[in-house]
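Reply to dn_fold:

You asked what the input looked like. This is it:
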Amino acid sequence: MKYSGIDLHSNNSVVTVTDEKDRVVAEKRLPNDLTKIVGLLLPWREEMAGVVVESTFNWYWLVDGLQAAGFKVHLANTTAIKKYEGFKHSGDETDARYLFHLLRLGILPTGTILPPEQRAVRDLARKRMQLVRSRTAHILAVENITARQQGARISSNQVKQLTVDAVDRMPLPEDVALAIKTNVAVIATLSAQIDRLEKRLQEKVGARTEYGLLTSVPGIGQVLATTILLETGPIDRFAAAGNFASTPAASTACTPATARNKGKGTPRTATST
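and this is what came back:
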């Protein structure tokens, strides 16, 4: 029986193969080239118990490629792995060996590997959230400018409705008005792209039974239901309700802001920005 651990970096990976007694059979630092990595592991594919890959920011290509090549892949949950402090040496090779060591002992914390098509939709929802946060920063910038200049801030909804002509009518110095106009232009662009993403997400999840069940809960609107659904993934990956309740997807639905909206039937909970 063989085991493999891959310490994945931005442009290279340390690939280690060992036997059931933790003896290193092969070990090499390779560029992030799927052909080369698969080529190193291929001689032991039939006796490979599993390949462990770190859940770094760039794991998609490697995990998908290894699975397509016939390897059983485990995605290590790096935030849940406690580093053993008794190592005499540290480095990428040690990290790679530690991953498969945890796998061999049956104590490797793992993450779920969603199919590529499901990941793409989930990441689209995350892209929407990124744009919403960016838009919020520009909205707050306008609110702060007006507060400094006029002694009172305007609301976020008022900021979203601002136009160039509306800014020109405000009693502001020319340069201050220009600063607001730049924010307004970016807000308009981000709002258009957010709307575009939300329409796409609705096309992807709107017809799903689970989506209908989520939106039937008072206080859970379209966007929050989409977030919970996509971040949860297959519900059967959770052994019990308590396991699900500890995930970010579940805690999203239990924030104080959401609780205040319970029973109000808000159609777009968590889209205040």
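The longest strand covers residues 12-19.
Hope that clears it up.
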